[in-house]
């Protein structure tokens, strides 16, 4: 850490507390670096994922659902670690500890300033990788950063807008067409206007406001510390880009108020997550960095950021239900819809939407609707409310028969026990899905079920990674498409609408899409929605969902019968559109280029994936299976 941080005192001959029996790091954190002594913590993971069989945006595949990160030290490794640490001397410049609020504390006791992360914090290397966990006896050299293309492409640059790699000879990103070296600005304008915004909270006595925004700069401190050859897509610039766009559009602060930030309490989190899960997030305050899965990182500020995000969502939901605020936008990170009852995964730590739903119920809401349009299925949210008939969960996501991350969310997943019929999954069978398919699904499935359910508040898990140009979702939803879907949902609960940011990794796409959504909230949205036909693949998905859900929602029966009778003429017959969809279907979904070639991934693809693809395509099932690994 930085030299202005207090060193933690260590007596001569004393062993730091994170060794073996007195480990200060939760079993859920696979590996990391201790802030108190700078030594690598290398537990042996009994259930760490092997090579994933799923494709999609996140590094972990379908198998991550089974991985709970249970770690234990082997005696040989523990003895070696003890001897190694006994000889170490505490360095100056270590963080002393985390304060009760979850932020690292400096000598003067104040939290570190936003955007002032010390240089040493940014460049510290780990030495503990997933390969170290498997090869504890150094039988194989660590190659976690090995990239077989490095010998072919010596010079490359990463797009600041979408993080995709490009060869040095080209000047514009091949994925998003952004100019090399260009970056989005404008956040400083938003930052200077924060003090001008009206603050609302459940405790303040202010007149009702139309729209409130939840934001706190400390959430920008959550970032990946370990230096890697490629940038992580879930990065602080996502919030900066959206904030700058809202300020440039004249929405903030003139047309909305700001919610006073607070960290969620442990008691509130216990209504959603287990004690072990909550403690595992908290313990990252004492780590320079750690990983819950190979793509889900944490640093010393992540616990604070996750609690702020959940606290803002909870207060926004309470304010909306109580009538103090008409609607709201939670501009928060880390995202949450993959976080389940007892696991962090898919970039997510705490489940913000679930926390907000339960806060709404405590504020008086009897029924809560959650619509999740993130391109990935919200497996965590579905798990939390799987048996709850008071929370209706509807998800529209890319699925590809379980081959797109996280692999859950098939149409037949309808809930359990009393919650049967209250999980509605609309699983797209391919990439390239755009406005027409989403709006068609809204008209035929989402809105009829929502009207029958009659929620007291509607929560949108608003991931913008199905947007056109997103490097992970590879779909085709436009900012106008998101605006239309938001307008359609305003009627579901008399306008009581809470939009919570989830994914989305193309900065221009998420900033423009989020701005169009907020325009609807403040009353500036166009609301224009023309009749349009879905693609053939989109119609098949809708028919599949209608067939399953009509037994729980009879209102869908006539629509299903009508579409079956005329399905030959319903979908668009545009040849160019069909060709474009087919192109995206087979080219999208691989995620960033370098994720194809993780440790030993190339050999796996060559030996197994091509043969599996030929077998599937030869079977005549017509399933869209992408060759690439996440």
UniProtKB/TrEMBL annotation:
CDD domains: HDAC_classII
Gene Ontology cellular component annotations, sorted alphabetically: cytoplasm; histone deacetylase complex
Leader sequence residues: none
One Pfam family per UniProt: Hist_deacetyl
Compartmental location: Nucleus
Principal EC category: hydrolase
GO molecular function: histone deacetylase activity, hydrolytic mechanism; zinc ion binding
Keywords: Chromatin regulator, Hydrolase, Metal-binding, Nucleus, Repressor, Transcription, Transcription regulation, Zinc, Zinc-finger
GO biological process, one term: epigenetic regulation of gene expression
Residues spanning the membrane: none
RanBP2-type domain residues: 157-176
Cofactor(s) required, per the database record: Zn(2+)
EC number annotated for this UniProt entry: 3.5.1.98
Domain of life: Eukaryota
Catalysed transformations (reactions): N(6)-acetyl-L-lysyl-[histone] + H2O = L-lysyl-[histone] + acetate
Protein family (similarity comment): Belongs to the histone deacetylase family. HD type 2 subfamily.
Protein name: histone deacetylase
Origin species: Digitaria exilis
């Amino acid at each position: 850490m930085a030299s202005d941080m207090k060193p933690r005192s260590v007596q001569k001959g004393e062993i730091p507390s994170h060794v073996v029996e007195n480990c200060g790091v939760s079993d859920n954190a696979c590996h990391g670096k201790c802030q108190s002594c700078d030594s690598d913590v290398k537990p042996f993971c009994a259930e760490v994922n092997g090579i994933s069989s799923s494709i999609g945006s996140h590094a972990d595949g379908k198998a991550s659902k089974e991985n709970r990160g249970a770690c234990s030290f082997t005696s040989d490794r523990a003895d070696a670690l003890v001897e190694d640490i006994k000889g170490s001397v505490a360095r100056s410049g270590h963080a002393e500890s985390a304060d009760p609020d979850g932020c690292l504390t400096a000598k003067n006791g104040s939290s570190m300033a936003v955007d002032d992360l010390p240089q040493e914090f940014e460049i510290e290397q780990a030495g503990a990788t997933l390969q170290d966990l498997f090869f504890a006896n150094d039988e194989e050299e660590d190659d976690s950063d090995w990239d077989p293309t490095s010998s072919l492409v010596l010079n490359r640059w990463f797009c600041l807008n979408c993080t995709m790699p490009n060869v040095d000879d080209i000047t514009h990103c091949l994925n998003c067409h952004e100019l090399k070296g260009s970056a989005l600005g404008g956040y400083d304008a938003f930052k200077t206007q924060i003090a001008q915004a009206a603050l609302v909270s459940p405790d303040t006595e202010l007149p009702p406001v139309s729209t409130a925004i939840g934001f706190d700069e400390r959430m920008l401190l959550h970032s990946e510390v370990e230096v890697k050859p490629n940038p992580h897509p879930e990065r602080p610039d996502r919030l900066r880009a959206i904030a700058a766009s809202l300020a440039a559009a004249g929405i903030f602060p003139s047309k909305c108020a700001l919610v006073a930030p607070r960290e969620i309490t442990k008691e509130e989190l216990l209504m959603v997550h287990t004690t072990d899960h909550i403690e595992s997030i908290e313990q990252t305050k004492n780590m320079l960095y750690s990983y819950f899965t190979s793509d889900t990182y944490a640093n010393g500020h992540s616990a604070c950021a996750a609690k702020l995000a959940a606290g803002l969502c909870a207060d926004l939901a309470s304010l909306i239900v109580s009538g103090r605020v008409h609607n709201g936008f939670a501009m928060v990170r880390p995202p949450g819809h993959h976080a389940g009852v007892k696991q962090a995964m898919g970039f997510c730590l705490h489940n913000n939407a679930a926390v907000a739903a339960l806060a709404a119920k405590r504020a008086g809401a009897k029924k809560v609707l959650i619509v999740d349009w993130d391109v990935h299925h919200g497996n965590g949210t579905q798990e939390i409310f799987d048996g709850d008939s008071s929370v209706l969960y509807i998800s529209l996501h890319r699925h590809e028969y379980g081959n797109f991350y996280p692999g859950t969310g098939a149409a037949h997943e309808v809930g359990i026990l009393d919650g049967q019929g209250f999980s509605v999954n609309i699983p797209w069978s391919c990439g390239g899905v755009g406005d027409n398919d989403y709006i068609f699904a809204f008209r035929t499935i989402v809105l009829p079920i929502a009207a029958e359910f009659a929620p007291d508040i509607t929560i949108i898990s608003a991931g913008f990674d199905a947007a056109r140009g997103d490097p992970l979702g590879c779909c085709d939803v436009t900012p106008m498409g998101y605006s239309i879907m938001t307008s359609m949902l305003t009627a579901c609960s008399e306008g009581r609408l809470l939009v919570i940011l989830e994914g989305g990794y193309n900065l221009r796409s998420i900033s423009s899409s989020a701005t169009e959504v907020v325009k609807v909230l403040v009353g500036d949205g166009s609301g224009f929605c023309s009749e349009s036909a879905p693609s053939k693949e989109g119609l098949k998905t809708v028919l599949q969902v209608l067939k399953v859900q009509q037994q729980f929602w009879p209102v869908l029966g006539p629509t299903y019968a009508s579409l079956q009778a005329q399905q030959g003429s319903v979908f668009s017959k545009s040849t160019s559109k069909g060709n474009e969809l087919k192109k995206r279907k087979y080219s999208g979904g691989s995620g960033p280029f370098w994720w194809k070639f993780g440790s030993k991934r190339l050999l796996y693809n060559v030996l197994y994936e091509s043969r599996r693809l030929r077998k599937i395509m030869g079977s005549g099932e017509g399933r869209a299976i992408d060759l690439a690994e996440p």
